Amino acid sequence: MTSAAKSERKSGQIAMRTPPVVSPQEWEAAHEQLLVKEKAQTRARDALAAERRRMPWMAVEKNYAFEGPDGKVSLLDLFDGRRQLIVYRAFFEPGVFGWPDHACRGCSMVADQVAHLAHLNARDTTLVFVSRAPQADIARLKARMGWEIPWFTLTDSFDADFGVDEWHGHNVFIRDGDRVFRTYFINNRGDEQMGGTWNYLDITPLGRQEVWEDSPEGYPQTPAYKWWNWHDSYAADPAADKKWAEVSEAGEAAFREASTKQ
């Protein structure tokens, strides 16, 4: 097959024009060339996250109320004792396509992608979903779809006040004692990146809380890799695992050495 060859496979009536097929050496060269741009994008993403951690905070002065599985709760209650809170507005309510059997298809895709919450919780961060559906319907939907995300019912103007009354989006909050502050908001295509632990942490005011990050002075930070754990093995104030520390240090050293040769 030449570089100008077209794939024999067709989509409809239009032949699919594929990239050239090359030797392993040519493929490696092309990959290395692309990797330069990918690394630049990674560094730019890290710099943007560092700037995000320096965004000003907005005090939340209004008392918002939600309904949960055990009754009425406040915005402060949604933190579940943790310092950071991410609230995703999912559309599941009368008038939404799919009701009452399903939530919005897009919001459901977001829910399907959410990583195990234990990893976020280990970084002092809580993720919740909110909708206008009653709790009985939310419980039914979660059971059907296998979702374990904490999911609360909106009862007031929270969605309108935080830009999610007509479209989905993530609002991020931090608390200082009983005071709550809004720190970030992302919606539309920005929501596409949500679901993974790292992307969630990157939109929080404290970030991943690892020592390599460019964060303001005094922000909590621990060595990278060492806080990672199996999702069923996190514990409050755990002692460092000596064996895992050795493994992670060796892996990081090898990674750094390889990076300097590229």
TrEMBL record:
Short name of one Pfam family: DUF899
Region Disordered: start-end pairs: 1-24
Feature: compositional bias, Basic and acidic residues: 1-11
Domain of life: Bacteria
Protein name: Predicted dithiol-disulfide oxidoreductase, DUF899 family
